[in-house]
Structure prediction request, 488 residues.
Amino acid sequence: MKEQRTKRTTRHFHRIALALSAVFLAAAGASAAELPREEAVLTHAPNVPPPITRRTPAKVVINLEVKEHIAELAPGVEYTFWTFGGQVPGPFMRIREGDEVEFHLHNNPDNKLPHNIDLHAVTGPGGGAAASFTAPGRSSQFSFKALKPGLYVYHCATAPVGMHIANGMYGLILVEPEFGLPPVDHEYYLMQGEFYTEGEYGTPGLQTFSMNKALDERPDYVVFNGSVGSLTGDNAIHAKTGETVRLYVGNGGPNLISSFHVIGEIFDTVHIEGGDRLNANVQTTLVPAGGSAIVEFFCDAPGTLTLVDHSIFRAFNKGALGMLKVEGEPNLTVFSGKQHDSVYLPEGREPPSDNGHALVRTDREPTLTEQKRAGELVYKQTCFACHQASGQGIPSVFPPLANSDYLNADPERAVAYVIFGRQGPITVNGVDYNQIMTPQNLNNEQIADVVTYVLNTWGNKKGRISATRVQEIRDGGPEPFGAGIHAE
Ligand SMILES: [Cu+2]
Prediction:
């Protein structure tokens, strides 16, 4: 009886409290007990949780598990990642300004080390680091209020801090402003980070962390979303012409600053460093280590946009390269494609013997030695930039020409690729690639020489290609060899 009355009284008070809170919630704010409770939606990169439609604060519960495990850093290269939520970067968290977050950090019992989390969205000691310090097989809970809107980095801050971050322990938390962000057609999440391995870039097998390279800030890998190729080929992100795209860009570091750039786009707006300040019409934006930026743009023209850290060796040689494929009808006013290709003769230069493409030696056929010597020069001026000095290529980006089963199967096909370019899936020495080789602007002699040089070097099957044959292949067009590059 007594118990019942207590219950009823409690319920009564509860109802009053609820009614009061409904009235005062927006105006006066409300204490934790009265806020509606919800579990946060967490997504793995490149996905972003849906926008928050609530216009009042909530109690948001976030559950995050730390997992140490081996995964691919690049094709054939493995690494023991320490992760939030099983992937690098950790999941994207999306809350609203004024929300109260109840944070639960779980450390998987199979892990070897304690971990914690420092969220830059937290106002309080260590961003929650000490409060969330958790041994393997344990869970910690702490709460914070999201005081300021912005795009914030979170990371592990357990000693040695640099090593926990270098092993992949970072992610982004978006605190939406009170009234939300303007709607866009696509939102994507990408986060840069570097990896310091004992073996140099591409060395196969399980790689261990190199403290020396980390101290020297000399990473072997600089990647988006935790691995080489996480945003290229089949993993590319998508949009259509006429659509708007918002990228939430983070940088876990641990050391490098990113010069984030999208090749073939101009950012309409940039939330500088993930804060309130907007910049407009930006080519490249800085993303500090432990910082972020929000970039937005309208897709005017179709094609593959390349996302890079414009510290460009990182993009083409260390992995910091992604793709956004924009589909749609060409907009020839915005971009025409190549309209004309003609011979360029600087003043005083003799015109070539014929139409400028078909440069066939008139006097006599060159010897094999002459062809190889000339071909080597062509190689060192053109092909080497992608296929590398000894024809070894770059894992997952540029296939090898050294000992290439693909090349040796049909050297004339290689000639067609040099003339017309090539795009699409290709398997070389058992490894899959799906990239673009642009047509190389070379004359028939140069192409004959360079392919002959490659055929007679690095364990390839030998043989010769003549300039006359190159012209015939040119006349036959790209089709018979599956050459050529197509707009997507
Ligand atoms: Cu950690």
